[in-house]
Amino acid sequence: MFSRYGFVMMIVFANTKGGVGKSTLAVHFAVWLFDRGAKVALLDCDKQRSSSQWIAEAEPQITVTAADTPENVALLAQELRQSHDFVVGDGPGGLDDLSRTLLILADLAVFPISPSILDLRSVAQATGVLKYAHSINQGRPEGRLVLNRMRKRDTISRELQAAAPNLGLSVARSVIRDLQIYRDAAQQGTAATRMGARGRDAAAELTQLFVELLTDKLAFLEVGDLNNEQTGRAHVRKTVAQ
Ligand SMILES: Nc1ncnc2c1ncn2[C@@H]1O[C@H](COP(=O)(O)OP(=O)(O)OP(=O)(O)O)[C@@H](O)[C@H]1O
Ligand SMILES: [Mg+2]
Predict the structure, then answer these.
(1) Residue 94 Cβ contacting ligand 1 at under 6 Å
(2) Hey, where are the domains in the chain?
(3) Ligand 1: does its nearest atom lie under 6 Å from the Cβ of 28?
């Protein structure tokens, strides 16, 4: 195995519904991991190729690959695992065969949802597909619902937060707010975590979320500068590099 960490982790962003923030979160997670010294690959399974174009612009040192068929995705994932610490999968806007394959291959499946009734309904489908993946892959992947585009004073946001624990999937405690900086980051081909003082709020909430999602894998990354996202690439701990 290539990974200096002794593990390879594949994190997949999926949902039945489009426009919930899969690509936004996948790109930010990939850049965030890279900036902490990890060797990262993005596996773009969306025909629009938005995340691979975004990453290619934001960080050329992240490996970018794209897959269109379940066969392709399985082969590529296998290949990427041989030479990276983290593989981040960006799913298409739907839970078709391609997404199902992506989920079966994953260690962690993240389902972003945003405050709308439709998104709530899509969670039931996501839970079903996750159970299917569990039956094939010995209880893997772990699944997490992530509340995205949350607005403080918005009733639907509050309702979603209240309903989330009953949706049959565990919910990340950290939430991502609806912030203009995420749209600007996409437009400028960069990550909010690399946008200086303007990106500070986004960087703080992203770090909180990613730290929560990584749990036991966290010890391997340098996250000592949790409150200082702007210092650029941090170093892998010595113990890991050896
Ligand atoms: N937290 C956020 N705050 C503000 N805008 C956001 C946030 N997350 C995503 N967006 C915006 O919402 C839109 C949809 O996001 P994104 O493309 O990441 O979703 P997706 O689930 O990948 O969509 P698709 O299914 O089309 O691939 C984009 O314009 C993005 O900039
Ligand atoms: Mg997308």
Answers:
(1) no
(2) 9-215
(3) no
Atom number of ligand 1 nearest to Cα 177 = 1
The stretch 195-203 carries a mean pLDDT of 97
Distances (CA, A) of 77 to 11, 101, 102, 199: 11, 10, 8, 31
> Which residues lie closer than 8 Å to 34 by C-beta, 6 or more apart?
40, 59, 61, 62, 233
Largest CA distance in the chain: 51
> Structure pTM?
0.90
Give the neighbor-by-neighbor strand order of the sheet with 9-15: 63-66, 40-44, 86-93, 9-15, 108-113, 142-147
Amino acid at 166: N
CA distance 241 to 5: 8
Cβ(179) to ligand 1 under 6 A?
Answer: yes
Tell me the CA–centroid distance for residue 111 and ligand 1, in Å: 13
Separation of CA 93 and ligand 2 centre (Å) = 7
The CATH class given to the 9-215 domain equals alpha beta
Which residues, including other chains, have CB under 8 Å from residue 135's CB and lie 6 or more apart? none
Question: Residue 220 is encoded by which pair of tokens?
Answer: 């391997």
Q: Return the ligand 1 atom nearest residue 48 CA.
A: 27
- 56 CA → ligand 1 middle, Å: 18
Reported as a single tens digit per residue, the pLDDT across 172-187 is 999 999 999 999 999 9
